[in-house]
Amino acid sequence: MHVINELAAITERVLEWMAALLMFGLLAIVALQVVDRHYIDVPITAPDAYARICVVWLTFLGYALAARSGLAIRVDLIDHWLSPRVQSRLAGLFDLVILATLVLLLQKGWLLVKLGADQSILGTDLTTAVPNAGLLVGFVALFIFLTARLSQRLLHRAP
What we know:
It is a single chain. With 159 residues, the protein is mostly helical. Helix content is 75%, strand content 0%. It has one domain (2-154).
């Protein structure tokens, strides 16, 4: 169990750095667009495509980080009426359902990356495998985080 928790901690640090770099890249791309539009001609083609890729990656990495921190949006209509023990079991059941769904999504995500390798993004040297890989990386990170949280629940430690 120590190994999965250490892997989750390393994954979290790597994702935080990736998110910071993507935010910096997104800021630079958008700033270049403003400069290009109003002041001087900047030799960058399809900046909107690069910005879109950054946003896709940030979406999936951000969700994985939010789920790791317990900040993901969820509906809890009955939680305040349940005992803490039942709440914990219900949260564990939800984690299992998400994990099972994630296994399916990982398989389909890998197929999406392979199919996207043959489809180019206009105005760039990239293929659609690049934004699709953001989905896959976010799902792999989420899989690691959920596995760590479920292992902590099985050992009766607070996640």
